[in-house]
Amino acid sequence: MVNYTTRGTVSEAQPDGLVSYEVREIVVTANILFGEIVGLLGIVANVINVVVFSKIGFGDSVNLSLAALAVSDIGALVTLQWFNVLLNPWFLQLDLPFLPLEIASLTAGYPHNYFVKVTGFITAFVAFERCLCVTLPFKVKTLITKRFAIGFNVAVFFAIALTMFPVYYTAYYDWKFDAKKNKTVLGIFYTKNINDVLGPSLFLTNSVVPLVSFAVIILCNIVIAFRLKRAAAWRQMSTSASNTAPAAAVSLKEKKMVKMIVTVS
């Protein structure tokens, strides 16, 4: 049986900082409201993307991955919206039966990180598929099939979810006494083995896992840029002297394409 920490009281935070609480609340509230607006626009845009990809069809593996990417983005934005609500000074002033700052971690913070990691790996997969289109244009459809794309995207959602198990194994919600409100509220508690379990787990999931997807994206973009530049140089050399202007135009187009691919990724 897992040993849990004993219940405690929530101590009242003392004012600290260069500005007053009023100024800080105004700045924080403005940032949160701006973030909420941007987040809502992002959710709407991704919902539209999912609808568009559904109407186009998922015969192409790229459409499957892009639709999965839109779904993970929606999850990341929805959890971020909830996180912003919990941090809103106006919301914190309400007489709530729970502590918003403690509820935020398991209901908003970690779920948001989950969807961000999923987004990273799906983006890496899309970059890898795009890299194959440049390096192996005649074999990419054989290597990346519709079934493979479905399996990979589902596996990413499932595998990243498994990495979140230690977080929810070492933390739980229960009732505690809040001295500031002078009543019992719902807050977070941690198991006694949290340092042994959560420390190595967070290092793996928050450092190693994101770096892997980031490295794949960088490597694929380097390969794409190199192959496109080499193809442009070959076409320019193959062009006769009388077609210097068209060759220069093609070279300029290839350079713009390389910059666009790197920027989008």
TrEMBL record:
UniProt keywords, alphabetically: Membrane, Transmembrane, Transmembrane helix
Task: State the name under which the record lists this protein.
Answer: G-protein coupled receptors family 1 profile domain-containing protein
Q: Which cellular components does GO assign to this protein? A: membrane
**CDD domains cross-referenced by the UniProt entry:** 7tm_classA_rhodopsin-like
Residue ranges of every copy of the G-protein coupled receptors family 1 profile domain listed in the record: 45-265
Its main localization is: membrane
Alphabetical list of InterPro entries matching this protein: GPCR-Ligand_Int, GPCR_Rhodpsn_7TM
Q: Where are the transmembrane segments?
A: 26-52, 64-83, 114-136, 148-169, 208-228
Give the subcellular location: Membrane
